[in-house]
Design goal:
Layout lengths: L5 E5 L3 H13 L3 E5 L2 H9 L5 E5 L4 H12 L7 E6 L5 H7 L4 E4 L4 H38 L5 H15 L4 E7 L5 E7 L8 E4 L4 H9 L3 E3 L12 H6 L4 E9 L2 E10 L8 H20 L2 H26 L3 H6 L3 E5 L5 E4 L1 H7 L3 H4 L10 H15 L5 E8 L6 E12 L4 E8 L1 H54 L6 H24 L6 E3 L5 E3 L1 H5 L1 H7 L1
Parallel strand pairs: 1-2, 1-3, 3-4, 4-5
Antiparallel strand pairs: 6-7, 6-11, 7-8, 9-10, 10-11, 12-13, 12-16, 14-15, 15-16, 17-18
Helix pairs in contact: 1-5, 2-3, 5-6, 5-9, 15-16
Length: 545
């Protein structure tokens, strides 16, 4: 018998509550007591309970109101069992209120468990049917897009977006794989509609290789506890991936690619219906790929990749005499083809870029650069094609086991031979540039300190030289005032004005003597003068006083 985990009981009868609690305990069910309509809604909306026992002794109006609010919910399947004292006219009203069953009191434990079990099974069956109907409609929507006459790449984007949203994935991708199993092609990604032909090296995606080899889905709830993902765990952690799910796209026992789902929050498990649903979508994708013109375009793309790889092999043969020199170089050495693909890279160059040699070879060099640096790199290549030997600083971000690192890489370019190849020389100058920047800042601080010292020396000398004559003038004014008897006359007023101006000059001399820093203020036009109040600290003293 299928039992819900928790059953809600609406009653104020303590004896009834205890009897039902003891009966449900035998069936390993939990009982929660509710007393109001609001508590019933909360229990239903939070998923705490899907089966409700309602005691009619609460009153007809309240019972009918409970039934009404429970039935108004469309998102969850619920069951309602009314508990009555006998067959009365109330039964008809309860049936009109869509009560699922009636339990007549007094009742036996067997009768209680039988009705609870029947409703639990009905709810479970109804939910499974609802899921099947929902899945069927969604599959119809997805397959109609895949087999339509529109652009298949756009249809695949719509499909992976719908699938990612349904399974709450942060990112979903459709990745096709070459028969050789070395390269993959991302033709749709739920987070970017523009991604339709992104080439990836499968050495960095062991999870895709595993699905291609086994032909079976791969579900990893915790990426940190997976042997398959051990080699790429630092990279997954850096992009906050905690769970993944991959489903093979299979055509006649051949794995064409995978549907790839990533989760930033750990997902504990997939239900069986979800696994079946995802694999059905993957199978529909395989049929669409087989029947669409994209198969031919992918074949052409594969031929193009083979040509590029063949050319790369030929060019590598031409580089053979220089390989030992490049590998032993202190600087990073990278050789790129005329199409921008990395043909050769030495270990030092791979270390500077924060990847392994295998991850970089065969990949466009642009993939190693942030978008903001591509224009600078294109300018460098253009200058090298004109025969100019220049060097630029490229700012790149590398990912490793620790946090992402910002690097400044001094890069120069030169044509290599007549095969259209370009040799890039790289050197990590992050510390040098930081040291140079600190040196400039130190020099600026030194100049500022020297200016401040010079100003204070000049101010000290001026204060010393001006102080004595000002003291003499003040003394003379004081003596004149004592000699004169006409204290209210014109002469006295002139002497008072002279005394005020001399006091003002004395204040200025005092500020000059107290200069401690070099601070200026705007003067006439574009010129500046020393701000005596701020430089001497008297402005702060006035504010504090």
């Amino acid at each position: 018998m299928i039992q819900p985990q928790t059953i809600a009981l609406a009653t104020t009868d303590i004896q009834l509550h205890q009897k039902i609690k003891e009966g449900l305990y035998q069936a390993d069910c939990h009982l929660v007591l509710i007393a109001t309509v609001e508590e019933a809604i909360q229990a239903m909306d939070t998923g705490l309970s899907r089966l409700f026992l309602i005691d009619t002794k609460l009153g007809v109006e309240k019972v009918l109101k409970l039934c009404e609010v429970l039935r108004d919910n469309d998102s969850r399947q619920v069951g309602i069992i009314a508990i009555i004292d006998g067959y009365t006219d109330l039964v008809g009203q309860l049936m009109d209120a869509s009560v699922d069953d009636v339990l007549v009191s007094p009742f036996t434990v067997f009768s209680l468990l039988a009705r609870v079990g029947a409703q639990s099974k009905r709810i479970s069956t109804a939910e499974q049917l609802a899921f099947k109907v929902r899945d069927s409609w969604m599959l119809i929507e997805i397959t109609s897009k895949l087999v339509g006459t529109g652009d298949l790449l756009d249809s695949l984007y719509d499909m992976i977006s719908i699938l990612s949203a349904e399974l709450h994935a942060d990112r979903g991708s459709v990745v096709l794989v070459r028969p050789e199993g070395d390269l993959g092609l991302v033709i749709a990604s739920s987070d970017d509609a523009e991604i339709q032909d992104l080439i990836i090296n499968l050495d960095g995606y062991p999870e895709i290789k595993s699905v291609v080899e086994t032909g079976s889905p791969l579900i990893v709830s915790d990426v940190s506890d997976s042997k398959v993902l051990h080699s790429v765990l630092p990279k997954l952690k850096s992009v906050s991936v905690k769970s993944i799910a991959l489903f093979p796209i299979v055509e006649e026992d051949n794995v064409l690619g995978v549907i790839f789902l990533r989760y930033s929050d750990q997902r504990e498990m997939f239900h069986q219906r979800e696994l079946v649903f995802c694999q059905t979508v993957a199978n529909a994708t395989a049929i669409a790929l087989r029947n669409h013109e994209i198969t031919e375009s992918l074949h052409k793309k594969d031929q193009q990749i083979k040509r590029v790889q063949s050319e790369a092999q030929n060019r590598l043969a031409a580089l053979q005499p220089y390989e030992d020199f490049f590998n032993g170089a202190v600087d990073g050495m990278v050789v790129i083809s005329d199409s921008g693909v990395v043909v050769f890279i030495n270990p030092e160059g791979a270390a500077i870029l924060g990847h392994t040699v295998q991850e970089i070879k065969g990949v466009p060099f642009f993939n190693m650069l942030p978008t903001s640096q591509i224009a600078n790199f294109e300018s460098l290549i253009e200058q090298s094609e004109r025969g100019r030997r220049v060097s630029i600083d490229l700012e790149i971000t590398t990912e490793g086991e620790g946090p992402a690192l910002q690097k400044i890489v001094s890069t120069s370019a030169a044509l290599l031979g007549t095969e259209g190849m370009t040799l890039l020389t790289m050197r990590d100058v992050t510390e040098e540039r930081m040291t140079a920047r600190q040196l400039v800042e130190a020099q600026e601080q030194l100049i500022k300190s020297e200016k401040q010292a010079a100003i204070m020396e000049v101010a000290g000398a001026a204060a010393h030289e001006l102080n004595q004559p000002l003291t003499a003038v003040l003394t003379s004014v004081a003596m004149f005032k004592r000699v004169l008897h006409d204290s209210e006359g014109h002469t006295t007023r002139l002497l008072n004005a002279m005394e005020q101006e001399v006091d003002r000059m004395t204040s200025i001399v005092r500020k000059l003597a107290k200069l401690t820093e070099y601070t200026t203020k705007d003067y006439v036009g574009q010129s500046k003068i020393i701000d005596l109040e701020r430089s001497s600290g008297e402005e702060a003293e006035e504010e504090n006083s």
